[in-house]
Amino acid sequence: MATIITPDLCDEFPEVNVAAPGFNNYGGVKAFGGEIVTVKCFEDNSVVKEQVGLPGKGRVMVVDGGGSMRHALLGDMLAEKAASNGWAGLIIYGCVRDVDEIGNTSLGVQALATFPRKSEKRGLGDLDVPVTFHGVTFHPGHYVYADNNGIVVSEKPLV
């Protein structure tokens, strides 16, 4: 994959959607992108855990955690599993934990913040449904690109 620089993507493809600011980079890969897989969950990462155990095929999991600041939806063990299974990254509208270890993982991870409490496990969550946050709707099968400058969403691959 070519180098991902979101300002350059915005210049070359002015029709792209751009998420509002507020995400932080926590992964060992600072620029990443790929086809979108979505998860909608709230304080329960059961579906995230299930998906990182499957082949990622260079895709990006976009997790709508409702912006919760009370539980982390990703920790070091799931991040390592995602990297090992070929996921390009995760964008989490919520929190992550174990950020020092996640930063050493070959995975792109962006989230709103860190929080040390793990999520609940109730088996709840939806897979591959459109999710909307930070002014952008993320559709399964569309494409997302992220770096330290922001998050860009497109209906088609850009790089």
TrEMBL record:
<keyword id="KW-0456">Lyase</keyword>
<dbReference type="GO" id="GO:0008948">
    <property type="term" value="F:oxaloacetate decarboxylase activity"/>
</dbReference>
<dbReference type="InterPro" id="IPR005493">
    <property type="entry name" value="RraA/RraA-like"/>
</dbReference>
<keyword id="KW-0479">Metal-binding</keyword>
<dbReference type="GO" id="GO:0008428">
    <property type="term" value="F:ribonuclease inhibitor activity"/>
</dbReference>
<comment type="function">
    <text>Catalyzes the aldol cleavage of 4-hydroxy-4-methyl-2-oxoglutarate (HMG) into 2 molecules of pyruvate. Also contains a secondary oxaloacetate (OAA) decarboxylase activity due to the common pyruvate enolate transition state formed following C-C bond cleavage in the retro-aldol and decarboxylation reactions.</text>
</comment>
<dbReference type="GO" id="GO:0047443">
    <property type="term" value="F:4-hydroxy-4-methyl-2-oxoglutarate aldolase activity"/>
</dbReference>
<feature type="binding site">
    <location>
        <begin position="75"/>
        <end position="78"/>
    </location>
    <ligand>
        <name>substrate</name>
    </ligand>
</feature>
<dbReference type="InterPro" id="IPR010203">
    <property type="entry name" value="RraA"/>
</dbReference>
<comment type="similarity">
    <text>Belongs to the class II aldolase/RraA-like family.</text>
</comment>
<dbReference type="InterPro" id="IPR036704">
    <property type="entry name" value="RraA/RraA-like_sf"/>
</dbReference>
<comment type="subunit">
    <text>Homotrimer.</text>
</comment>
<protein>
    <recommendedName>
        <fullName>4-hydroxy-4-methyl-2-oxoglutarate aldolase</fullName>
        <ecNumber>4.1.1.112</ecNumber>
        <ecNumber>4.1.3.17</ecNumber>
    </recommendedName>
</protein>
<dbReference type="GO" id="GO:0046872">
    <property type="term" value="F:metal ion binding"/>
</dbReference>
<feature type="binding site">
    <location>
        <position position="98"/>
    </location>
    <ligand>
        <name>Mg(2+)</name>
    </ligand>
</feature>
<keyword id="KW-0460">Magnesium</keyword>
<feature type="binding site">
    <location>
        <position position="97"/>
    </location>
    <ligand>
        <name>substrate</name>
    </ligand>
</feature>
<dbReference type="Pfam" id="PF03737">
    <property type="entry name" value="RraA-like"/>
</dbReference>
<dbReference type="GO" id="GO:0051252">
    <property type="term" value="P:regulation of RNA metabolic process"/>
</dbReference>
